[in-house]
Amino acid sequence: MCFLKKSLCGFKQSPRQWYKRFDSFMIKARYNRCEYDSCVYFKQSDDPTYLLLYVDDMMIAAKNKTHAQKLKTQLKKEFDMKDLGEAKKIIGMEITRDRGLDRLWLS
């Protein structure tokens, strides 16, 4: 029997190990994990920032664009990732915005 010192892609424990690494990174970055959904992280301040995680997709929501940009920069330093820009669709929901009226629709 051999013991691996780190998880490899394709093994049953790989997603769990990835989540543990991601979770510890977010906690070190001073984000709180939501007590109702372990894939929602938030940083409480005057302008809160939220990170929503679904498997290997994530969405950042913040009133202040600089907070979102700062979190993206931190994530890029730690993980291989690419920025797909503004969300148009996530987990099967389409996102429609009307910035002039400050409205958002999910369908």
Describe the 3D structure.
The chain has 107 residues and is an alpha+beta fold. The protein has one domain (14-106). Helix content is 27%, strand content 28%. The chain has helices at 14-28, 65-78, and strands at 32-33, 40-43, 49-54, 57-62, 89-90, 93-98, 103-106. A 4-stranded antiparallel sheet has the order 1-2-3-4, covered by helices on one side. A hairpin with a 4-residue loop joins β6 (93-98) and β7. It is globular and about 45 Å long. The relative contact order is 0.09. The mean pLDDT is 85.
Topology:
Elements: H1 14-28, E1 32-33, E2 40-43, E3 49-54, E4 57-62, H2 65-78, E5 89-90, E6 93-98, E7 103-106
Antiparallel strand pairs: 1-2, 2-3, 3-4, 5-6, 6-7
Main features:
single chain, alpha+beta, 107 residues, 27% helix, 4-stranded antiparallel beta sheet, 3-stranded antiparallel beta sheet
Q: What would you say about this model in short?
A:
With 107 residues, the chain is of the alpha+beta class. Helix content is 27%, strand content 28%.
- The total strand number stands at 7
Largest sheet, order of strands side by side? 1-2-3-4
The total count of helices amounts to 2
Give the overall shape.
Answer: globular
Please give the share of residues in helix: 25-40%
Mean pLDDT: 85
Low-confidence stretches: none
Structural classification: alpha+beta
Radius of gyration: 16 Å
The proportion of strand residues reads 25-35%
Q: How many structural domains can be distinguished in the coordinates?
A: 1
